[in-house]
Each structure stands twice: as C-alpha cells, then as structure tokens.
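## retry 2 of 3
previous attempt timed out at serialization; input unchanged, resubmitting
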Amino acid sequence: MQELYEAPLAPLTTLRLGGPADRLRTATTDEEVVAAVREADDAGEPLLVIGGGSNLVIADKGFRGTALRVATTGFRLDGAQLELAAGENWSAVVERTVQAGLAGVECLAGIPGSAGATPIQNVGAYGQEVASTLTEVVAYDRRLRRTVTVPRDECGFAYRHSRFKADPDRFVVLRVRFALDDAGGLSGPVRYAETARALGVRPGERVPLAEARETVLKLRAGKGMVLDPEDHDTWSAGSFFTNPLLTEAEHAAFLARVAERLGPDVAPPAYAAGEGRTKTSAAWLIDRAGFTKGYGDGPARISGKHTLALTNRGSASTEDLLTLAREVREGVRHAFGVTLVNEPVTVGCAL
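## retry succeeded, writing output
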C-alpha cells in the first residue's frame, strides 16, 4: 500500500482545494482498504476516506490524521447484473454500461467521482438516481468490525441521502451492485423534461442508449458540470446546494415572500416530494436573490454556466469558497426565508 506523509490533498479533489494530510495511504484492493481502516481505528486516529474527491471541501489547514484513497478496480457484468469496486470511475462505468446495451444509469453520465460514493449521496440527475437500480452495497462496518452486505431496502435512500451519509463514520463502501435493464439497446423512460426537450421526445419515451448519454453529457457540459482541467468553470464540487424540501407551512411562507419580492404573478418551481413536502429549485432561489452566473470578483466565484456551482478560479483558498457560499446562503435566506443546505462534505471546516 502506497504511503506518503504531509501529502497534498487538493490534487485529489475536483475543487483543487485543501491543505495536506498527515499521512496519505492508497489502497488498491478491498483487503488493503479494510486493513487501513482497522489500523486507524485501533490507533484511535482520525480517518478521511477519499474516492474521486468530487464531493469534498477540505479545510486550508488540511487533515490531521490518515487520508485513505480508495483506488480499487473491478467491473463485472453477469447478464444485466453489475458489480463495481468502490474505486471505479463512475463516468467511465456509465459509458461501459451503455456500450453493453444496458439501461438504468445512462442519464448519470458525466458525473465525476467514484462508484463507491454513489450510494452515499444517492447520486441522481436528469430523472435517474442510483437508488432506482442499486441492489446491494458491500461495506466494511467499523462498528461491527466486519464486512457486511446492505440490501437496497436497508440503505435508507432519500433525496441526496442514505444511511451511509447519515452515519458517515460507520461504513466504508467496498463494492456496489446494480440490476440494470436490457431494453434492446434503448434507454430507460426519459423522465426529465429538459432531457426530453433536448432529445425531441415526450417524457416517458425511450431513445437509443448512446443518444441519451451523449445528450446528457452535452447538457452537463453546457452547465460546466463535466470536468475539464482547462476550464475553471468545472473546478467545482458540482451542485453546491441541494434543492430545498419544504413543508406545507414553509412552502406557503415561501410563496408569500416570492409574491412580496417579485410580484404575485411569479411562480417558483415546485415539485411534489412526498409526505406533504414540496421541492423547489436552489438554482432559481440563488439567481432570484441576485447571485447570477459569474457572480463574484475574487478567486472563488459562481460558475459562469450554472448558478449552483461555486468554482475555484485557479488561486482560491477553501476559506474563499466558504465565504462565497455563506454569502449566497445568507442572501437567499434574507430574500426568501429558505436556508440552503450544502451538498458537499466539509472536512475540518463548516459553513
């Protein structure tokens, strides 16, 4: 297992931010992952598990402890059943499933990060989410000190949430299993209105798999959501804030604030989210609160392509980014009475 001391962590994140770790270990097998976790736990040492680094905001002071980079590989198809090692690159996984003619994750194309991170956030985009096709998660349980298999129904999936996210110090994901769909080379039903418009079909229709993936990649690239080392608009953690889920009372108060601020004829986005809740758009809130694309004049700014992405323009610090995030959060709360929640995990820092 590779081991480095005072190792920079910024290059391991899509934001390119954060100070060094006391020690960085890179594991290439499940056995190495488990051994490194056990060693840290036995020593009472803080542990930071890193996959693709696409959902991490690491403090400028770095991480005082061991950072464990999961670099395991493994892609196994048995019919439409897929098993992935946690370290597999997710975007490459989607491409391979499309090439194999299997539907279920094609609209998750271009999402950066590793396969092992997808169940933690219940990654989703353009009408699909991991919870729809995932069947099992194999993880090391730090509480029980053994490897366990967690079936889908016990993963606690919700909007950008899971039991793994709720209890981040307990599980280290090793493998993820999916049941995909052999639809004769066609995608799953197109559920997202923007995707359907771009494809020229009605919601619910199917299209060739490759066409669905390529369309999603174009949509994501237009929003700066496909990694490009030469484009600072992609030096981000993707969507920095989740879409708010409002109770009936909160939604009524929100609509009153919108009418007061923008006029009675303005209708903000609203989607039924179950249990008497309504989901609205974080991007809409940010934009209407005055934080438009490209906002900011420092080294951390809102993306010029998408208001949900906070970007490092090349020389930002983590504190620069957090200062901007706080400004946006407070501005939205002042304008509409809604408090945005950050999607990326903060390490050694907080909003």
